[in-house]
Amino acid sequence: MLKILLKLTQKCYLYFSKKCLLYFSVYNWFIDLGIMPVFLDPAHPEQNGRHERMHRDLKAECVSPAGFDMRSQQRKSNSFVREYNNIRPHEALNMETPKKVHIRSSIPFPEKIKSYDYPSHIKVMNVTMNESVRWKSYYWVFITNGLIGKQVGAEEIGNGIWKVFYRDVFLGYFSENDIRVKQKSTRLSTNLV
Length: 193
Known about the structure:
Layout (H helix, E strand, L loop, with lengths): L3 E4 L2 H5 L6 H12 L3 E4 L9 H15 L6 H18 L10 H4 L21 E4 L5 E4 L3 E4 L8 E8 L2 E6 L2 E7 H7 L3 E2 L6
Parallel strand pairs: 1-2, 5-9
Antiparallel strand pairs: 3-6, 4-5, 6-7, 7-8
Helix pairs in contact: 3-4
């Protein structure tokens, strides 16, 4: 089974629109299965060159010119996928096709996702319908709407600074001192500065 998955920047993962909820639900499902995301730096497409190249080829083949209607557009997309996976050799695969080098995983897909137990030193909190966790009964820390109904863990690293995780995935930091000063909800930050 897949162990690592490249994804958007960490900031995008934390602050996304409601339209992307299904997309992030899939990513959370991957994390639940033990597939760890690798976050890319913002504005650095060179870190994901293969994916960007595939998008360039897809756009050239399927978008310009676009199909007349949904059916013709779907035919163009299906044709691209067939050619990309079965006919076209890829330099990254030693000039082989993806179909030729793909090996089906021998690891069975789990029927049920295992529950995750945070270490005992981590404070476990539920992400509520307002996309936040309750902190010290009075304050709210905004997490993300992609984790509503899930549990996150917070680990104190000193001076009132806490690291927040979803399972093994680091989400960001927050300062409980800032929360007390602001007297309102606060957001996670991806850096300490």
